[in-house]
Design goal:
Layout (H helix, E strand, L loop, with lengths): L1 E4 L6 E4 L2 E4 L2 E4 L4 H6 L8 E8 L3 E7 L4 E7 L1 E8 L10 E7 L5 E4 L3 E7 L3 E8 L8 E3 L20 H5 L14 H4 L1
Antiparallel strand pairs: 1-2, 2-10, 3-4, 5-12, 6-11, 6-13, 7-10, 7-12, 8-9, 8-11
């Protein structure tokens, strides 16, 4: 498995080895060892699956104590992680990657980061492995087009939920609701 460190060192891009032939392909989607070797010491406790159509943008979402390992099992997405740890030197910085069913890439978004994606294909199924169960009281969101973040999303008029349309800007968020680097240490 190839592991790439992004410009946000805690956000990792994984590329599992795919064995392709005339019948299709086989790949190992998860085995604890390689992720532990890459520095992910969290235990994954919940899997989630979302289905979306072209131009749907989901995010930017976070769960205070939840990390996510994201992969796409159908279609293609533009995937984004944003550092939202108030005491981080990289607070407000973001990275993106194209994840697809054909490239098999996985993005690890640790606690302290917001996550979002925009669907590039006609449809996309996004699979998340999470390091903590969903807790509504720890959920939050940031406005997808926050000018302070200046994320270069594809397209200009995404399909959004009311919640995502109404999320606050990062600078307007109550920083006491965010997890800090010190808490994660």
């Amino acid at each position: 498995m190839k592991v790439t460190t992004t410009s946000l060192p805690e956000v990792l891009l994984f590329e599992p080895k795919s064995y392709d032939d005339a019948r299709g392909f086989f790949l190992e989607t998860f085995r604890e060892g390689p992720y532990r070797d890459a520095g992910i010491n969290a235990r994954f406790v919940q899997d989630n699956l979302s289905h979306s159509t072209k131009h749907v943008l989901r995010g930017l979402h976070f769960q205070r104590h939840q990390g996510k390992l994201i992969s796409v099992v159908r279609g293609e997405v533009f995937d984004v992680a944003v550092d939202i740890r108030p005491d981080s030197l990289r607070f407000g910085q973001w990275v993106s990657s194209q994840l697809s069913a054909s490239n098999h890439r996985q993005l690890y978004v640790p606690p302290g980061f917001a996550h979002g994606f925009c669907v590039l294909s006609d449809e996309a199924d996004v699979w998340y492995k999470t390091t903590d169960i969903y807790r509504p009281e720890e959920e939050g969101g940031i406005l997808w087009n926050d000018t302070g973040l200046a994320i270069d999303w594809p397209g200009s008029d995404p399909l959004l939920s009311d919640r995502d349309r109404d999320n606050p800007r990062l600078d307007d968020l109550d920083h006491s609701a965010l997890i800090t680097c010190a808490e994660l240490a």
